[in-house]
């Protein structure tokens, strides 16, 4: 299989890339630092004994860089069977992008939206293609001013709004593209990752919990028809289950408002 995982130079993205590379898949990792991407590609190649590991570099806070990445993927990748939109940001020194958008909204939602829409031709050439979008237990109503960057709020509110925006769009995308299985997932709250440590200074569960569910949702036959659903890995004892997302994710009026503003921004 051909697999692209965004934000895969550390955390559960990197661990999932390694797990998939160990099985002999062609894995594309992505990060914003060229040096880090190159190091991770070498590391995964050695650890997996698989030379079909390649890297892409793009800063997802720059939406033009995301568009450039999409162009590069279209010219270099023949087809994709799995896209895991994992790149995410929570705590950061600068809260705004160069274009004046909230950085969480740009990286966690707008970048995933732009990348996915622009590489659709590559995804459509995949076999039983799946898209896994990383949502969160934290989801809150998307405010127009936050989306456009006109209003500033604290990191956790902006993060929760960006994750709900991604989930709302996931459900919409799933309806529009029934030939692609699209699943939104909360991989587990406070996993042992850099992001959780920076944000909260603690963790509840090992990172492997998130890796296992990303791997299963992306590859297991059990999930191949689960399009347009939300998987909550905080539910259940050992493994999570499909659960209702935030009510806004089912509200057609709010979804169309979100998409209208999104298209205006990009």
| First-residue to last-residue Cα separation | 31 Å
What is the C-level CATH assignment? Alpha Beta
Outline, from the CA principal axes?
globular
Can you say what the CATH homologous superfamily is?
NAD(P)-binding Rossmann-like Domain
Tell me the CATH architecture.
3-Layer(aba) Sandwich
Summarize the helix and strand pattern as letters.
Answer: EHEHEHEHHEHHEHHEEH
How big a fraction of the residues is strand?
A: 5-15%
- What share of the residues lie within helices? 40-55%
Number of strands: 8
Mean pLDDT across the residues is: 92
Unreliable stretches: 195-204
Written account of the structure:
With 266 residues, this protein is of the alpha/beta class. Strands 3-2-1-4-5-6-7-8 form an eight-stranded mixed sheet, sandwiched between helices. It has one domain: NAD(P)-binding Rossmann-like Domain (Rossmann fold, 3-Layer(aba) Sandwich), CATH 3.40.50. The protein contains ten helices and eight strands. Helix 1 links the parallel strand 1 (2-5) and strand 2. Helices cover 46% and strands 14% of the residues. The chain has helices at residues 11-22, 34-48, 63-76, 103-118, 120-124, 144-148, 155-176, 194-200, 207-219, 252-265, and strands at 2-5, 26-31, 53-57, 82-85, 130-134, 181-186, 229-232, 241-242.
What order do the helices and strands come in, and which of them pair?
Blueprint: E1 2-5, H1 11-22, E2 26-31, H2 34-48, E3 53-57, H3 63-76, E4 82-85, H4 103-118, H5 120-124, E5 130-134, H6 144-148, H7 155-176, E6 181-186, H8 194-200, H9 207-219, E7 229-232, E8 241-242, H10 252-265
Helix pairs in contact: 1-2, 1-9, 3-4, 4-7
